[in-house]
């Protein structure tokens, strides 16, 4: 079989252009964590000093592994499982490396299941805020109560989770150009426009100087070993490496596409969103004296409180929740795609594969949603030390984010760095032997050490 030849119907699909691929891949990377986690992790760990470490980690860990995933996908021209199998066969590598393909299907399947539960919260707040003209509560405690009421309602959580998964399934049921690409071309530019608009609003109406200083002013006294580890972990998790989406997207790339350039553009877009999110949020946070802790408390309690008080708050709040939805949705469709692509490789039509994958993921998410109310006291792994009080949602989130994702990233780095000959996919990436050698050095040494540090110390 010649290099680059399709090995099944999946490989017949192609992105219409490199730009659309970059938009779709950036959509996979840009998620809710960029908007509500990165700014506060950065600010609490040295601000600009943390950002410098984060950027070094993106370049030295995230970028090399992302490039490896894209290269495997384009060379294999199929879903993650078959692409890995093809590369293993051509390299004569140990078949045990096929675990990468299995993880690259399992991780996104479980991931979209519980991720869509949180995305359902965004849908609820978006629709409610726009329809009601802002929440307009009199007492700040009412905003917390509203969120608590949402968590306590199984019917609302399951219904919202269903709506989000239905929309994701519908988009992925089409081919790449008619589904994911069409959505990415609309939502990703709109996401950046909305985000820049919110930054401008913060500059004009919020305490922009204090917010920017809080996020970007370097405080090296806070830069401890723990904060360095946090920066490395944030860089790894925010780039969508290890979830199978980039490997699958790589299979749809044209042979002439410049993979290093595309990977660099994805990394830049993802990092830009994270930093712009901080510059949009912190001026509002400081202007209204809100808590500077990140997470769902910020997004669903603190900021809605501010939106109802500020000038033009209805439009700002609506833009913010639309932004959150776009980030959640583009990540959602990219996460379901590897599973549907795998089912296509098993002989199902794309539409049937999307429905099957979407429904199965909804069932996983349903269990996660119920862990906030009816099943709040169900601790499936209570017999394990340290897992005694983890709910179903917590188990899924921790297992994917803290264990399987870094493990799969580690395996990809070791597989491409050590098990594959330089000539197999290296020639596709750069003409310079020195650049290929540098890339392989980071895959062989730097990335594995950093990921092991995340797993062991984190």
TrEMBL record:
The terms under GO molecular function for this entry are:
symporter activity
What kind of membrane protein is this, topologically?
Answer: Multi-pass membrane protein
Localization: Membrane
- Where is this protein primarily located? membrane
Transmembrane regions listed in the UniProt entry = 21-39, 51-72, 96-117, 155-174, 186-204, 228-249, 261-286, 313-334, 354-372, 392-420, 441-457
The record's family statement is: Belongs to the sodium:neurotransmitter symporter (SNF) (TC 2.A.22) family.
Question: Which protein, by its recorded name, is this?
Answer: Transporter
Source organism of this protein record: Iodidimonas gelatinilytica
